[in-house]
Fold each of these.
Amino acid sequence: MITWEHRESVGWQTSLKSIGIALALTLLLTFGALWLTTGMPLEAFWQMLTYPWQAERALTQWGKALNPAFYLSLIALGLSISYRANVWNIGAEGQFAIGSVFAFGAWLLLGMPNGLWAIPIILLSGVVGGMVWAAIPAALRTLANTNELLVSLMLVYIGAQFLFYLSNGPWEMSAAMKPVPTRTESIPDSLLFTSVFSQGPKLHWGLVWGWQVYLVVAALLAFTLLGYRLSVANQSKRAERFAGFSPVGTIWIAFLFSGGLAGLAGGIFLIGDTGYLVDQSNFLQNYGFTAIIVAFLGRLNPLGILVAGLALGYLEGGAGWLQASGLGDDSISGIIQVIALFCTLGTATLVTHRISWRGNP
Amino acid sequence: MDLAFIVSITLDVLNFATPLLLAAAGILIVEKSGVINLGVEGMMIVGALAAYMVAASLASCGMMGFDGKTCLLDPLLGRWSFLVALLAGGLVGSILSLLFGFLVLTMRANQIASGLGLTILGLSLTNAIGNQGFDITGTPLQGFVPEEWRLSNGVLRLGTVNIVTLVAIATMPIGLWFLRRTRAGLVLRAVGENHNSAFTLGYPILRIRLLAITFGGFMAGVSGGYMSLALIGPSWREGLTNGYGWLALALILFGTWRPMRVLLGGILFGLTISLGPRLQNVDGLPGWFVPLFLPVLPYLVPIVVLALISFDATMIRRNAPGSLGKTFEPN
């Protein structure tokens, strides 16, 4: 059995060391997972590492990596705000879904316009949608002391069913030949985000605008009282009250930020990637859940989350490439994500402690 | 309402409550030891796939031409193969929970994040294996639950209630007796209430918690196995457990860690799940009722009852284990 000793000095070196160990372990275990699933770990690993250069159209592959990377890090940044304050919002998937529902609903309410002026309204409605859905656990937590973790998660199922109901019921496309699966009308092309380059359809301008929101929120965390407030909230409620911050306010901040960013991601996804609503299994990409992993991989730090989001986005693209080249199944990406998460969580204690093998009683 | 209807709805409710109560029994012990394991959903779905795979291979080796294998086990096991498959699910669930135990106990990782990771791991693992490794989609398993294990024949249209249901209901009185009346239960509660005091008394905190976590994984695996073998199936599909692991976690909060209240909550949750199919054909309902309201009812009701129950903050504080979710750091 191992025991732990406090380190005499804790600094950026120990933090870096633990990240290095986590990375090495992740690579080792990923290698093992690839061995078990494909039987050709070296080949599979090489393909997943270099796929943008292997493919004929590199930009398409980069799009497959950067597109999920964007959604993951945007949602994860919001979640990190909540986790830093010890508020457990794990329902970003539902807030993403309701964000796109609100965004689409705004377009319908505006009378299905095709002028560019509608885009800000649509995206803002997405933010509002995510916030509304996140406000439910926040309200129940602050008013009735209800466990916010379970409520936010239950709302994922409800939000997904909402998406399914609307795209198959009231908002269903009215056409003689209905597509399978049934979906809503498409938002006109003039409103959809165009791609930044001539090729690479997934690299659209929505990502570029969205990154700026990311920067703004990250700056808020770094340079305003918000970041300090969250870390005080993480210590204890008592400390929070002493510092003059209301714990209730912190819970609301945590939920509104995380829900709003997830809702924004949903809105951008709607007018950047699909253009219509469809049933949940074809619309939702699990970004809300994977973003939880990204938040913890980035150790709840905006820069770390950016790196982690890029890494997992690259991994998603790589897993897709692996499947396309017939080497394995793309579900490997989920397994590698959890390997990375467990290695990161397992080595977090190494920042402040060292392992002692001497076994004290 | 005639008798047959009442019997059928009661059995139906109990049938849906079975996996919830089985998983909740494990969660109760884990949380009473002071650990939050949010990986229940993941362990359940892995248990569900494992139980289904074992059941499929046991059942089909009695048939001609399954992979050309000759079957040694099935004639020997006979009707016990249902139980063997269920236990296999439990075994795999407890193996997964050992990973969680290593992370949060030995490596002192964050319990909530590790549990969430375990859930995602379970879902990805089953997607990967269920997709490619073992083609089971078409394996016939009808009638796998042996006739003599069923409590009711011919009364039910939806599913069957079997002896596992009785075990699931019994877990709660047994849990109550264990926690209140046995020495081991007292030690478990002491560890969960204040791990520093229990450590000072000389109890091996980590070993006790690891045992509890393993038990929780076993029960979650059995519960998942019950879902894939008896409740939904016998069949397998991705995401089969459908949030039941989370419902079981909500059940513990609803019951405020008290077994008999958990039992009551299990019946209430079972009722909401079984209500959906029965209300579908009622006349005069608004258009959104059947496609929107009925499917979300099993997730909506826990939110409402949790909100109602948690209004009384002192009751939760009185019943929640004191060290719940805290990492034990002896030095």
Amino acid sequence: MYMKITEKLFILLIFFVMISGCKAVYKTERVAQSRLAGEPQVGFVRPDKYTILGTRSVCDYIEIVYEKKTTNEAGFPLVELGVRNRGGQHFWDLKGPPIVLSVKATFYNAPIQSAGPTGAPVYETNWQTVRIVRGDTAHYRVVCPVKEARHYQLMLSELIK
Amino acid sequence: MTVKLKQSCILISFLMIAGCLTGCATPIGTQTSHTRILSPDEADNIGGSFLESSDIRTIASRMCPEILSVPEIANAEAPVRVAIAPMQNSTCYIFDKDILSRKLRSELAKYANGRVRFFSQNQGGQRMRKMIINEQDEDMWEKTLASAADVLVASRLISNAAKPVKVRLIAPKNVNLTDMNADSFMIMLRSAILEKAGGKISFLSSISNDGKTDTNKNVDYWLTGEFFAESISNEELQKSDASIIGWTINQSEHINLNKGSLLLDKGSSGMVTGTTVKTKKKPNAAKRLSVLLIDAKTQNIAFSKLLKMENKVKTGLGRADIILTGDVKGLHKAAGGNRSDYILVTFQLVDYRTNEILWEGEYETKKVTNRSAVYK
């Protein structure tokens, strides 16, 4: 008798799971504003290796030398970023490899530091490849052709492939 | 047996639940298809060491703001018109080099906000423009001829005449054109004149009743014209001698030359000098008709009116302020199965008046691969 009830419960459960799976429209969760606001102006994404003990990322090897936003002679926003390949910083790897990064700049009208991006960017570059040999500093420079752009975000990643 | 059945039911139920749950959580698989969808910035893992789609996008992305920052564009009060010259490719790769300028043009058009204008330079667009302009010209023919008739009738020559002026139509002259039916325009003009003259002009037929009588003796004026193209070159067919052969063919035909042959379409006309062949079906030049009224006794031109019958379809490039041009150069190295390519892409903005380079932007890349690829 007890088994029969269990069987019925299972059948009911299957029925409800299948019903819920038949929904055509789902509500997508919206990212929390606080989380977006916590994103840095220059961010590093995509660690290249995930392990149980942690992730390995080329951000272990690079450092930001400078980051500034000015305007060029025509009045367009100009963002400059210096990224240095400082080489290996661990006892097991003191040398470090030459690094190839993909860098993308996104410009916004609305502020992104206080509340995160509140709209689509007014301009964004493609993912541009930057190769930095050990010890060298790459000077990434991007001019935004939209004068009204006030805020920006730079994303660095391992080479997109 | 019953216990086994129950166990089987439970097992199947678990499997179904697990299946449902994993089915809900798994994103749409992209690996099952034969084709992967990539972002244009992603590497395709095919190999090759030449320019990739990401390079083309990077070039456009970097150079667009730089071009818009050039003082001649940034400080211009009116939109700057840019003519794009074909790119030069000096590398060992054969590819559609204009993809670089096309992407750059697209990027500029997107962000220039009207400060930069380009000319349509594709052949399909030009053919369509020509069709539209020619049709509009055709719609204007009746009005143009009617206005010419108005001017002729209102002239002192006609309005002050004591009796109706006797005019005979004679065939107009084609000055430097072929295949143009100027007779039709003269007939249309004659109809318009008769309609507006109110009896002040009478046209004499060129055909006598007996075929012998000289009908010219009663004529006061000859109405004729000269049909010509506004062109430096001679658009007319050259008639032949031994070394220069002119023709107008009525059906597709092979013209044999010393070195090979040429297939000409029906209606083509042309000139052969040695092995050089020039054909013009319908020259792109403004076509005008000079209407002439000639005194039959003195042969003086008593009245003249110049009419534009067809406009030249201009590309608009004459209004360009700046030329955008560029080139792709390469240094190639290969050994064994390895290959290395250094590619330099440069774009220049050139002031066409002074030939000065106003701006130059460059993009360079070096790639090495052990798997060469064919670029098309």
